[in-house]
Amino acid sequence: MKSYTTIRNLAGSLSQNTTTENLALFDVLINDAHRYLLQKYYFNEASTTIVTVSQQQAYELPFDFSKNKSDTITTGQLKWTPTEVLTRAEWDRLNVFPYYADFPSNYFIWNNKLEFWPIPSTAGNTITYNYKRRPTELSVTDYIAGTVSVTNGSPAVVGAGGAAFLANYMPVAGSVLQLNLWIKITPPKGDGNWYKIESIQDADNLTLVNNYKGGTTTGANYIIGQMPLLLEDYHDLLVYRPLMIYFSTIVDNPNKYKEFKDLYDLGIQSLDNYAGSKTVNVNLRTQINTNNPNKYPSSLS
């Protein structure tokens, strides 16, 4: 995996210009590439829930909403999936007069709100948004202050010696989920694998999404990094695309442009093959051609 800091530094090194101004330029190009690839693929999908309000038709979309996938309303044991209305004119025709029910058949997105028809009649039913979220900017530099202690089979990470996760690294408790932060306990004391951070409770305590698989240790060095939402094998694409633009518009170097374009195109081809769809055909057998004996007459003796 390559953190934001690693991607930024690698782009600067390969451009052979690591000035502050040039790295700031790569910040823009890297985030543009990140957004572009997330629109193309499905890695930034998310779900969130709110509850209905009696006789309220419109509900605020999630703050990081980018594109809707589907929405459901759960009433008791029943989960309803309304159909989207695509035009304002059609929506207005449905809403000639107020009509209330707990099982909306349609929804419409307008003015950053999700509206239902019929209008939900009962409070407390669960609305689930399934959507592509707008990614948070890649901007958080790697953090390595102090040391940590971890226990095999536990998700808890305890900082010491000035780690101060929340005070020095996280300005607001809970924002870790939007920043996509990961931690690596570095060898020789750590196992060297990246683990996603679920939450940071206070200055010296954080929790992993998964239990730590390495050995129990104290006083271990670590790195916390902000990761792209792309699959880790394709983080290099966030280096190659900015360098393509750099060597075609900022510095005129056709050979370098072609070099990084070839690398980018090869990576995109591999990513399309690996993640172009969410399903995989698990039937790997070679197709067997069989002949139907009934199609042929019996031989005459």
Question: How would you portray this structure in words?
Answer:
- The structure is a single chain.
- The protein is α+β, with helices and mostly antiparallel strands and 301 residues long.
- It folds into 3 domains: 1-44 and 228-274, no CATH class; 45-133, no CATH class; 154-217, no CATH class.
- The protein has 7 helices and 17 strands.
- The chain has helices spanning 4-15, 20-40, 88-94, 165-169, 176-179, 237-250, 254-275; strands at residues 45-51, 58-60, 65-75, 78-80, 83-84, 100-101, 106-110, 113-117, 119-120, 126-133, 147-150, 156-160, 181-185, 194-202, 205-208, 217-220, 222-226.
- The radius of gyration is 26 Å and the shape is globular.
Q: What proportion of the residues form beta strands (DSSP E)?
A: 25-35%
Radius of gyration: 26 Å
Oligomer: single chain
What shape does the CA trace take? Answer: globular
Class of secondary structure makeup = alpha+beta
Strand count, sense and barrel status of the largest sheet are: 7 strands, antiparallel
Low-confidence segments, given as residue ranges, are 281-288
Q: How many structural domains can be distinguished in the coordinates?
A: 3
Number of helices: 7
Number of strands: 17
The whole-number mean of residue pLDDT values reads 88
**What order do the helices and strands follow?**
HHEEEEEHEEEEEEEHHEEEEEHH
Major sheet: order of its strands?
Answer: 16-11-12-15-14-13-17
Roughly how much helix do the residues carry, as a percent range?
25-40%
What is the distance, rounded to the nearest whole angstrom, between the alpha carbons of the first and last residues? 72 Å
